[in-house]
Amino acid sequence: MEAIIDGFVQAFWLLVHGDPQVLKVSLLSILVSGAATLFSLVVGIPLGSFLGLSRFPGRQFFISVVNTGMGLPPVVVGLVVSLFLWRNGLLGFLHLMYSPGAIIIAQIIIAMPIVIGFTTAAIQQLDPKLRLQILSLGASYPQLIWLLLKEARLPLLAAIMAGFGAVISEVGASMMVGGNIINQTRVLTTAIVAVNGMGDYAMAIAFSVILMALVYLVNLGLTIVQQRRKAR
Amino acid sequence: MNNLPSDSLRILEARDLTVNLGGREILNIPTFEVRQNEVLVVIGPNGSGKSTLVLTLGLLLKPDTGTILFHGQPVTSRSHIFSTRRCFAMVFQEALLLDASVWENVTLGLHLHGINRKEVQIRANRWMDRFGIASLAKRQAKTLSGGEAKRASLARAFVLQPEILFLDEPFNALDTPTRQALLEDFEDVLRETHMTTVMVTHDHNEALSLADRIVVMIEGKVRQTGIPEEVFASPTDEKVADFIEAGNILQGTVEQKDGLALVKVTGNRIVQAVSYLPSGTRVAMFLPYEDVTIAVGKTEGVISSARNQMKGTIIKAFPQGSQLKVTIDCGFLISCLITRRSWEDMKLETGSEVTASFKASALHLITKP
Question: What value of ipTM does the predicted structure carry?
């Protein structure tokens, strides 16, 4: 018990003094997971819209694959990505293994199905006649998609929260493809594992507090945006 | 009434339209036309393909075969479909407003059409005012009542000043007073604007009050087209008559007697009708409820111009609108509409002996194959 309280006290001072290692790790976490989430949104929202709007043979299959992907174990993703990025792997020539780029790739694979799945569901929950109504008002297809996404913005914000939440908090994939190298690929979650293993509980608690605060702040921001219109 | 048969007035035509869904044919329309400035009302039972027809005509549903012609030009290419859609407006049963303010909803189509800001202001103000929702401009659409939302969706369509307005059961989901008020406003607007309108409904009163022409659709096909009075008074076939439900359907065989058809119906009763159909013809007859009157007790000795006087017993009575629909068993079943006041004054009840009367000319005979 004493160790925990001690840990919190030390963590407080580390944060207050702006410990350079803590700052570096936090920043990398935000950059890597932010980039992965952003890329997943840019690609996943159009793909999810397509799945939600179109009818083609095999669509059910695709949706079930996406839904399965929403529960991908990060460790498995880490393993598969490292097999590809390893020197002898298919993408070995990119020399990405143990770089932040590798973590981004792994996190994209984790976040993408979540974004696609949420977007598909968000679009599908709209009245199917709304599409016809918007087209009848003279919308082009790009205008139609834009208006539908705007209409589904509340569940879409949930897609961002879920996607970012999943990648900022995963440890397995980051560890396997990033290697947890200090000053290069150490992110908050892998840092917690590492310093905890070394018995540095104060540092582990400090990282945990930052991680929690980060997740909370991002979700708070999105929730405010999401609920703003409703409250009117 | 627009009795304007001239070809030049056809604004929209359809040829050989078919739409299939899951191997089932849900629409089969060899020819169809909408005339300039007319209010065309499409009626028919649920699942008869009315909505599909309107979506297809409105270029929102691609038919499996067939062509739509707008101002005589076939609309086939993607870009032509897109530009022609902008000459139409559509109002659905649901208001289908976006999660935005009423103003944003009403002006959405104008923005999509790229109309300049000043014109947007003018048109939106005019139509929101016309539909009585000017004061709701800043309200969020989600907070509107059903009637208000419907007014907003009508204003959203009218601001576009479409060449053809399509409506798919627009007043269906509203409660009676709201619906009545809106229907009156809408009727006035149609009269003022002479907007070419195609409206789907299954409400006979809406059809009667709004339509210049009525199209009756049953099982994906157009069964009858004509002015309302004609369609309601003389359905061309049994299925139309069945749907119109404004009257009795009697079946029997004709025995011709100098322009008077003596039709033997169920229960071996003879009904007299005006018709030159030859003896032996099997017919179905449409007898509007309102053409049947009832009197209490026996009528022997009473001289009446009604050639048909049938004694019978009241077997049921239930409210239909403001009146009672009374069904009488006189060997065959016949129904009529009477006011509650008459019902009480005549001291009628189930089991009362009455005489049902109707003129020979009230019967409309439909030849059966």
Answer: 0.74
